[in-house]
Amino acid sequence: MKQHYSVVVVGGGQAGLSMSYNLKERGFDHIVFEKNRIGYSWRSKRWDSFCLVTPNWQCKLSGYHYPGDDPHGFMQKDEIVKYIEDYAASFDPPLKEGVEVLKVQKSNSQGVFELSTSIGDYTADQVVIAAGNYHIPKVPKMAERLPENILQLHSSEYKNPQSLPAKAVLVVGTGQSGCQIAEDLHLTGKKVHLCVGGAPRSPRMYRGKDAVDWLEQMGYYDLPIDEHPQKEKVRTNANHYVTGRDSGREIDLRRFALEGMQLYGALKNVSGGNLEFRNNLKQNLDRADAVAESIKKTIDGFIEKHKIQAPTEPAYEPVWEPEEEVLKLDYEKANIGAVVWCTGYQSDFSWVEIPVFDGKGYPGHDRGVTGVWGLYFLGLPWLYTWGSGRFSGIARDASYLADCIVAKKRVLHRNRSSIVNEVALGS
Ligand SMILES: Cc1cc2nc3c(=O)[nH]c(=O)nc-3n(C[C@H](O)[C@H](O)[C@H](O)COP(=O)(O)OP(=O)(O)OC[C@H]3O[C@@H](n4cnc5c(N)ncnc54)[C@H](O)[C@@H]3O)c2cc1C
What we know:
By secondary structure, this protein is an alpha/beta fold. 26% of the residues lie in helices and 20% in strands. The strands form 6 sheets. Strands 1, 2, 5, 6, 7, 8 and 21 form a 7-stranded mixed beta sheet that branches. Strands 10-19-11-12-15 form a 5-stranded parallel beta sheet. Flavin-adenine dinucleotide binds next to helix 1, strand 2, helix 2 and helix 4. The site of flavin-adenine dinucleotide has 31 residues, from helix 1, strand 2, helix 2 and helix 4.
């Protein structure tokens, strides 16, 4: 006999733990399978100086809001891991660590889910996939044309400047990770060459408050995806770059350039000993600034509409402009000893062998509820709101799914009782 649970939750990050909290609160028998240890992604896939970009007050896991005395600060990596561990200790979830779910199947729409795991097979009435979204590092094929004496690593493997060769570093990509890693290297005096992509920039403090505080006050974090102007397209947008480092500040790549960082457009090719760049550095810097300015304008509009007293700020002036675009760099002459690919991740749900995915492997769902009875996803970016793939919105999503799970259990219970009655009556 396979062991059976009403609900199996796959993943013991903040999403899986929040799900467990909500199921436990509703008295629901379940198990959480975590293939590593809880908080694994924060512990193992972030660099040493990593800190949150979102303020601590947004860490509001179900039943366990940020307990520290710095709500407007930004927890560092070890504090984030501790926050997750303390969360688990606060409600003692039914958790099995070191267990990988290798396959999830469902034989027919009436049947139970069948799960193969690294410790054996299980069945479940309902399954929540809370396995994160950042599974496979995305590295462009051109990487294979770089010589072996250049160390290559993905942002998820980068730890600190000291662990790289004592040479210049090429950082590819300017999403949150790329900008923060480039800064980490730059601050220790390393020569950094940075390929600037199309990610937008966010202001940090504006008119007396963190931009996140303004957006919260404006209700942005409650905006459901179906009311967002971009609808589902917003899910694939790059995150705005800004940092929580040193109590939080803006990242202005132009300032880095003034201080000696070498900026280029997006990396186009690796060929004949050269790195080749697109002719889009100016355009990418201008666009990132335009987004930051448009966020400020929206905040200005809100302040004006609600007649809020807030200090004013001088308009942003670019501190540096590229004189002419450099389109080629000989990596040997530039003494490049390492490349950090900050080029994002791909999700991999290939082990969920149930036909709910689109051509790109993204599950079809409405607020995490898929078209297959009893199968849910949790923790995906913009699953429902901006905070769905972050600390801030996971409690709301987990609570919603727990209510759906309870409702389905009632239906299941009714169906099973009527079958038992029919059998008992001999029909
Ligand atoms: C670089 C970076 C910076 C970020 N910064 C912020 C920030 O400042 N603020 C913020 O709110 N959010 C931030 N996020 C987003 C988000 O909060 C994190 O990605 C967070 O880790 C998501 O939590 P999760 O529980 O959904 O996924 P994860 O933390 O990835 O947890 C999923 C768990 O599932 C386990 N798992 C996966 N597959 C299986 C399987 N088959 N069987 C069993 N277990 C499995 C994994 O081991 C993992 O522990 C950031 C993300 C990244 C990548």
